[in-house]
Amino acid sequence: MRASTRTVFGLAALAGVAGCYSPPVVLAPVAAPAAEWPRSLDELTEPSEPGLTRITLDANGTTARVDEVLDTTNAVGSGWGVHESVFVNTSSMSSKPICMTPCQADFKPGLHVLHFSDRSGSNEYTAEVQVGSHPKAVRIAFGHRTAGKTSSGAGVALFAVGLCTSLVGSVLWASSNRNKEYGAALETPGMGLTLGGAGLMALSVPFLVSTPDKIQPGAKTELAAPAR
Questions:
Q1: Could you tell me whether strands 136-141 and 53-58 are parallel, antiparallel, or unpaired per DSSP bridges?
Q2: Alpha-carbon gap, residue 101 to 141, rounded angstroms
Q3: Is 140:125 a contact under the CB 8 Å cutoff?
Q4: Which long-range contacts (CB under 8 A, 24 or more apart) does 184-191 make?
Q5: Fewer beta carbons below 10 Å: N end or C end of the chain?
Q6: Structure confidence at residue 24 (pLDDT)
Q7: Are strands 214-216 and 110-118 parallel, antiparallel or unpaired?
């Protein structure tokens, strides 16, 4: 009886660990864009105003929206359930639109935070650009995020049924040792329910296993404007 009870709670612990939240795995960044002047660039014909520097922006040959980040706000929350822990990290930003890549824009000297996003909005990259007195190009390559495997509803349901079945069987099995009149009649079904429930929990473990998301950060290349 004691061994079977340890088996039940051991499988419950295993399933709980398998279904826990796994933080994302951060891989090496994608290859940085080549240090070459962007192609298909419709350059501005008017010279920069005094005190401003012209910066060429490119998303490795793709069309992307560029906004300058003016302010950001972050909020973090967490919650715990029976099988999973959930962490939520949200952020909002105040920004102003700049242009669609490949494009050019004039900036005041200093540090600027530029946010690139593709047409679908699924790929984003934030670049810190130090603007000086000389024109240059900033080329970025978007990173990638691959979603991991999450616990399935079928696995959770199978585990719950197995746990309840095992607990009922354990109660009957324990009662068979204390009840002289009905002990023999309770022992067999108690043993069967306990072991059968444990088997269901064991079968549910592969469906409860979750794998983390994989994140491959983007990359940036800066190069001086060609001599005119």
A1: parallel
A2: 12
A3: yes
A4: 191/4
A5: C
A6: 83
A7: unpaired
Among 28, 95, 97, residue whose Cα is nearest residue 57: 97
Residues 47, 92: Cα–Cα separation, whole Å = 35
Of 38, 226, 42, 224, the residue nearest 134 (C-alpha): 224
Which DSSP string corresponds to the chain? -HHHHHHHHHHHHHHHHHTS--PPEE-PPPPPPPSSPPSS-----SPPPTT-EEEEEEBTTB-EEEEEEEEEEEEEEEEE-SS-EEEEEEEEEEEEEEEESSEEEEE-SEEEEEEEEETTSS-EEEEEEEE-SS-EEEEEE--EEE------HHHHHHHHHHHHHHHHHHHHHHHHHH-TTTHHHHHHHHHHHHHHHHHHHHHHHHHH-----EEE--EEEEEEPPP-
Provide CB contacts within 8 A for 160, sequence distance 6+: none
Give the pairing of strands 25-26 and 214-216. parallel
- Residue keyed to tokens 């715990």: 80
Stretches where the chain sits below pLDDT 70 are 1-22, 74-91, 148-156, 158, 169, 171-188, 190-192, 200, 203-209, 228
Torsion of CA 210, 212, 23, 119, to 10 degrees: -130
Q: What is the pLDDT of residues 138-173, one digit of tens each?
A: 999 999 887 766 666 666 676 777 777 777 767 666
| Residue where the block lists tokens 């585990």 | 159
Residue 14 has phi, psi (to 5 degrees) of -60, -45
